[in-house]
Amino acid sequence: MRRLLSSIGSRLVIAVPYLWLLFFFLVPFFIVFKISLSQPTIAMPPYQPVFGLEDGLSGLFGKLRQLSFDNYLWLLQDALYVNAYVSSVVIAAVSTLLTLLVGYPIAYGMARAPERLRPLLLMMVILPFWTSFLIRVYAWIGILKPEGLLNQFLLFLGVIDEPLIILNTTKAVYIGIVYSYLPFMVLPLYATLEKMDHSLIEAAQDLGCPPLAAFWKITFPLSFPGVVAGCMLVFIPAVGEFVIPDLLGGSRTLMIGRTLWNEFFSNRDWPVSSAVAIVLLLILVLPIVYFQRAQARAREREG
Amino acid sequence: MASLGSTRRTFAPWADPTARPYIRFENVTKRFGDFTAVDDLSLTVYEREFFALLGASGCGKTTLLRMLGGFEQPTSGRIFLDGQDLKGIPPYRRPVNMMFQSYALFPHMTVEANIAFGLKQDGMPKAEIAERVAQMLKLVKLEQFARRKPHQLSGGQRQRVALARSLAKRPKVLLLDEPLGALDKKLREETQFELVDLQYELGLTFIIVTHDQEEAMTMADRIAIMDKGKVLQVATPAEVYEAPSCRFVAEFVGSVNMFEGTVVEAGSAARLRDRSGAQFLVADSGDASPGDTVWLAVRPEKLRITRERPSEVENALEGEVWDIAYLGDMTVYNVKLADGRIVKASTINSRRSVEDALTWHERAWVSFLPDAGVVLTR
Amino acid sequence: MAGTWGRFNIASLVLGFAFLYLPIVLLIIYSFNESRLVTVWAGFSTRWYVAMLGNRGLMDAAWVTARVAFLSATVATVLGTMAAVALTRYTRFRGRLLFSGMVFAPLVMPEVITGLSLLLLFVAINFDRGFATVTIAHITFSMCFVAVVVQSRLITFDRSLEEAALDLGATPVKAFFQVTLPVILPSVVAGWMLAFTLSLDDLVIASFTSGPGATTLPMKIYSQVRLGVTPEINAVCTVLIAIVTVGVIAAALVNKRREVLRRREDMALVASA
Predict the structure, then answer these.
(1) Whole-complex ipTM
(2) Contact in structure between A266 and A228 (CB atoms under 8 Å)
(3) Which of A298, B223, C69, C86 has most Cβ atoms within 10 angstroms of its Cβ?
(4) What sequence ranges are listed for the domain ABC transporter (chain B) (predicted)?
């Protein structure tokens, strides 16, 4: 009897989170997919289910005939969506590169810091990550505004004569993404750099390699797994970002997360926004799978 | 047959046909996917025996122990303990306890709480638990460490806590997985004798897994030597050393010279011809018959090394002293024969200084008596 | 040591941390500005904090957020820990690949997709949107973060500890609660804190899944920010930052203190021995 109970226990441990995710994560995707294939007129709010269990099989086949790829064709034909996808990927890629450029020296400096300082530095990188994303983006509005603190400061220094227009441009979006996602880049980089044996650099120098060359030939290649992890952690969420382009970007800053939001909340076109979501997911599947594989490989190498 | 080596105590239930085996593995096989860890293995252990499973890592010895503990289920075959089939009995209901290689002390509990853990699971009254814990602490001489946490103890103290914890429930059998592996050499040697004394005092059955032959030979009544999931020989330490059953055992335990050859005459005054054509006189050729390929295993200390060929000995080989390893208590000579083979011969340094000792590149003879070696057929 | 650290490294750290902290510091400073204009300093004042406390809508939203965050973090910690145990302990069960996929996918899923899909689910099953739906949505994505945090601890957990407990007669359930859970507890607590702050932060998913009467604080802040930067929002943000910072630092200090105590105890023992 006790054995029976313990085997039920182990089944529960699997079943409860499994069913939860199945119902609240996987099933919703199928619903999004289903709605993306339905006619806009049917699915306009108040939303009418395309088909439900009560329709039975015959009803299901009847409804299946009504499914269409119209929404997807619509996405392809309308330059707005295509441009939004392309510009999301471009903005995400550029900001990922910028984040890497900003993050690498920080991670490197941390890894080379005296050992007793490292936990503190690590904590300082993680701390902003705990504070609200929205707040951190909001903080930049006051800085980047035409009459904001940055312009006041630069005018005061005499570097510029006229306020720079940064807010509500793509530049502000870059700054926002780099700022918000910097910890995601620094942490994996730091993890690989910190593990690295410093005697490798000494060996390279001993063999006649000058410091900068030693960095490019030894340090950077060895930190590559961290570079990949950091870039993926920035790139993937940045593509679907909504808050940053909405608050910092201009009306001409196209990003797909924002398009989806507007499609849903302003145009109330549920089938099209579902189709937008599905296509966004398809774009992200490749980097996500690549990232998972890279992580699994890294885990194997360590384990 | 003369007795092999000296026996530690007169205890040999395995030699008594009426004795009842206490633990029985019957044709046990364990596979992990494609890998066969334990291969159709049968083995018996007797009550109050100190039994060692000896082998290199990956030979299946730990898997065998874990099956007895209930952490792995045999793919096929059965395991009996005191007449009871253990199939389907989970670890927490088996009357055996295990001492883990990592000790597995619960880091968040004191020494006391660790030792009391198993007793609490049985619902033993509090007063009795306290009494038993005190008794166990005394047994392992850790009375003043009761309130400490495991990380506040030295390696040797941790090992003793693990021992006390696994003994607290008075199991029928104690399983020890490399119990001394984490200790340094000196402490290990001391602890070996402590364990033997403890086992004798408590009258329990111990099964120990080890890769250290010295450890197995020091402690065990019998040793099972394992390779690739199979048991190659089960015997007392002296038998394993002096009468190995096969080349693997001979080479695994101690150091050995192995002469490959053919049987010319079998029987109690057998003759072998080795690869170089030399003839050896051997006291016993075992079950080999003329024409068979066999191996003559001779331990280095059974070889004599001299400058001149000894006249009275039949088995002698000439060579050149190639290497000398002075180990303090003894000296090992590597002698290179004409055909390039190296023969090891060791001498005990019973005196502090030797006049006119053999030195590098000298010609020398190694010789051995007809009963010095064992003829092996596999 | 300082020699190998180098000037370049120190400079990049100083600039890097200035970049990370300056915007937040400025935001905090200007929350104490007397002027309504956020960018013009007109003297120190706490009037915006008073205004904030008097803002009924803001306070209601804060209360909703606190309840959602507490409830969702707690449930997510239980579910996430279970998922972590399932993934590390049971290497073979039907649908394990799908399960691990579902645990890891939400970590990289764009929030707009998660939010939209959950909303469509709630509509499909005719579930009234409000407090419950936001909480469910937050549980769903934060349990995956908890699972990852706890799993990384479980991987390094010495399995023989659990086996020792079983060997000494504890049933698997007892072994988990008496041995495994106490040992991995710090990671479970960290998971809870992460889930709590994720819920506290979330704007996008809450916007999709919330309904009337369940406006969360980020939603409220967002709608006001769209109208422009106000010192009152700065004040709210400052309070939120203070709460989270105090929480995180306190947790770190507790950990550190435990460590120091432990080390001091060890040293005393060594000295007395």
Answers:
(1) 0.87
(2) no
(3) B223
(4) 23-253
